[in-house]
């Protein structure tokens, strides 16, 4: 029984790292228009589709921006009617990119972004404390890229992705009146992206892009246990500091995107995107501990395997921009994002909901400089919680908001 309780607790914590959730905050201008992608006006297009670099109207383009992301999750036990709320800090996703055209039909660029990440903080003594008390997840994508203009109306682009990741997670181990911290700050992975960008008519932009899945390899993870006494150390085969090492391969999902922007008039444009996310790769998660016999495999008690049963999901986006003048631009948008798992696979480390989001913002162009501000308000749909694998039942609801400031510079 002790093995089972500790194993389940550890697994739940690392699920948060593997599951995470996609943070659609890679461009302030894009967020204002529902985070749509077919906007080849500056270097912010690079994250969405490297092929879009070929249609940026300047030889050099530089962008940078940041966001504040706040959210609160409430869980209610329907038997006791007791409610628990998270106390999450404001998240701060950032991005930056640069593009350059050394010759007429060739563009090169570099993009930095944080597309996966979250921080969630539940009360230390809440009823799900064996699943999670606090969890911080961060990921960083570094993408060099190139784009070739195949004709006046079409380009192809590709990028290499080097990813770094970090997880810092606390949870209770009530079987021994203690706590465990799961930590890894040097997980790495590699991936790629490619796409085509079309402008068959001056009024129409079409973007088709793919970003690969990335297997984040945690080779030096550390599980640190804290107990009132050291008596469980020998049982769990921990070192004198109450620690054991683990390795794991933690997947980040692939993404397919089709986007378009159409200029209804010279001042008014409408954009739409469809995203398909490959969450189904989370069929299971395997952790290999160095010494602790807390696994569930008869052939090797240090190996822990558990099904996840995530499902692929879709996002539908619609945005618009109107130029009030050559300087001021107004933007609005809305999108619907599906949760990547069903009710019976809900986990409190990375709570996900079917969510409708409203967005808006304003942009200012001052010769070569651009300033963009944007905001979004999310309305997640409350859902029942019925996860028999971890014994978690009740009802969950959430609220979330985003705001961002972006800068661009297109000197020549």
TrEMBL record:
Molecular-function GO terms, alphabetical: long-chain fatty acid transporting porin activity
SUPFAM superfamilies in UniProt: Porins
Descriptive protein name: Aromatic hydrocarbon degradation protein
Record family assignment: Belongs to the OmpP1/FadL family.
PANTHER family in the cross-refs: OUTER MEMBRANE PROTEIN NMB0088-RELATED
Gene Ontology CC annotations of this record: cell outer membrane
Lineage: superkingdom: Bacteria
InterPro entries noted in UniProt: OMPP1/FadL/TodX (IPR005017)
Locations listed in the record: Cell outer membrane
Major localisation: membrane
Species of the source: Chryseobacterium artocarpi
Keywords, ordered alphabetically: Cell outer membrane, Membrane, Signal, Transmembrane, Transmembrane beta strand
Membrane topology according to the record: Multi-pass membrane protein
């Amino acid at each position: 029984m002790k093995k089972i309780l500790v194993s389940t607790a550890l697994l739940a914590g690392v699920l948060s790292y593997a599951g995470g959730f996609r943070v659609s905050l890679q461009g302030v201008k894009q967020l204002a228009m529902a985070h749509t992608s077919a906007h080849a006006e500056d270097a912010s297009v690079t994250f969405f589709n490297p092929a879009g670099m070929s249609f940026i109207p300047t030889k050099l383009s530089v962008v940078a921006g940041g966001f504040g992301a706040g959210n609160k999750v409430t869980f209610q036990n329907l038997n006791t009617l007791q409610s628990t709320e998270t106390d999450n800090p404001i998240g701060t996703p950032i991005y930056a990119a640069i593009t350059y055209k050394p010759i007429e039909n060739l563009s090169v660029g570099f993009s930095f972004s944080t597309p996966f990440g979250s921080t969630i903080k539940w009360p230390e003594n809440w009823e799900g404390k064996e699943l999670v008390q606090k969890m911080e997840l961060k990921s960083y994508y570094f993408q060099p890229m190139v784009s070739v203009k195949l004709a006046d109306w079409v380009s192809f682009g590709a990028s290499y992705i080097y990813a770094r990741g970090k997880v810092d997670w606390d949870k209770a181990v009530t079987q021994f009146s203690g706590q465990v911290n799961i930590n890894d700050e040097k997980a790495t992975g590699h991936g790629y992206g490619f796409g085509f960008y079309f402008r068959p008519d001056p009024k129409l932009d079409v973007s088709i892009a793919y970003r690969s899945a990335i297997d984040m390899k945690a080779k030096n993870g550390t599980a640190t246990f804290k107990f009132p006494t050291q008596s469980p150390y020998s049982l769990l085969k921990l070192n004198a500091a109450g620690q054991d090492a683990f390795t794991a391969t933690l997947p980040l999902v692939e993404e397919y995107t089709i986007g378009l922007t159409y200029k209804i008039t010279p001042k008014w444009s409408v954009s739409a995107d469809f995203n398909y996310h490959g969450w189904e790769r989370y069929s299971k998660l395997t952790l290999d501990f160095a010494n602790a016999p807390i696994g569930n495999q008869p052939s090797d008690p240090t190996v822990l395997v558990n099904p996840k049963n995530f499902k692929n999901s879709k996002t539908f986006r619609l945005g618009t921009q109107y130029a009030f003048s050559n300087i001021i631009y107004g933007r609005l948008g809305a999108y619907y994002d599906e949760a990547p798992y069903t009710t019976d696979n809900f986990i409190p480390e990375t709570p996900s909901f079917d969510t409708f989001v409203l967005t808006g913002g304003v942009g200012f162009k001052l010769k070569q400089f651009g300033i963009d501000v944007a905001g979004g308000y999310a309305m997640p749909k409350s859902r029942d919680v019925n996860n028999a694998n971890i014994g978690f039942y009740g009802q969950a609801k959430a609220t979330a908001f985003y705001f961002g400031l972006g800068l661009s510079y297109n000197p020549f």
